[in-house]
Design goal:
With 161 residues, this protein is mostly beta strands. It has 2 domains: 56 residues, no CATH class; 83 residues, Immunoglobulin-like, CATH 2.60.40. The chain has no helices and 15 strands. An 8-stranded mixed β-sheet has the order 8-10-13-12-11-14-15-9, with no helix packed on it. Strands 1, 2, 5, 6 and 7 form a 5-stranded antiparallel β-sheet that branches.
Length: 161
């Protein structure tokens, strides 16, 4: 850890994460500064008194465009699919529905899938947010519906085995 003096992105400090060193993978993690636009930036690492050549880092703007389905039962367990672009951005992805976590099960460049958690009320449209580290993107609204009640089932007889 003491070998790395600093990491900068376009002369802004990239704060080294306390447990971000992995000697086996020869990697280090840092919390990147915020830039407002989709653009390329130079990363420079200074270690043991030597400065690296610039490494290009691309800042992307993840955009959430669609959500399907737009409703699910308040007991949770509904699988949601977000259509989007530029999703391979950062590594701290979280989806929440009105503050309740939607557990991410799959992600690629254009799609996120998550499973809703239990929610206490039903009927109202609630906010959906997707968080990439410190960047928050609002998604389409979601509506929790009442849990189904089984009143009858057919057939109610079967063959004896």
């Amino acid at each position: 850890m003491s070998d790395i003096y600093s990491i900068t992105i376009d002369n802004k400090e990239c704060v080294i994460v306390a447990d971000g060193f992995n000697i086996h993978l020869q990697s280090v993690k840092c919390k990147a500064p915020v830039f407002d636009s989709f653009s390329q930036h130079d990363v420079i690492i200074t270690a043991q008194g030597k400065t690296s050549a610039p490494i290009v880092l691309l800042y992307q703007n993840p955009i959430i465009s669609e959500l399907s389905p737009r409703f699910g039962i308040k007991a949770g367990g509904t699988t949601l699919t977000f259509s989007a672009s530029n999703l391979n951005t950062g590594n701290d992805l979280m989806v929440s529905i009105d503050g309740s976590e939607c557990f991410v099960t799959d992600i690629n460049e254009n799609q996120i899938m998550c499973t809703t958690s239990n929610y206490t009320t039903s009927g109202a449209k609630v906010a959906v947010t997707v968080t990439f580290g410190n960047a928050v993107r609002d998604g389409p609204t979601f509506t929790y519906t009442t849990n189904p009640t089984v009143t009858d089932f057919q057939p109610n007889k079967g063959i004896q085995a």
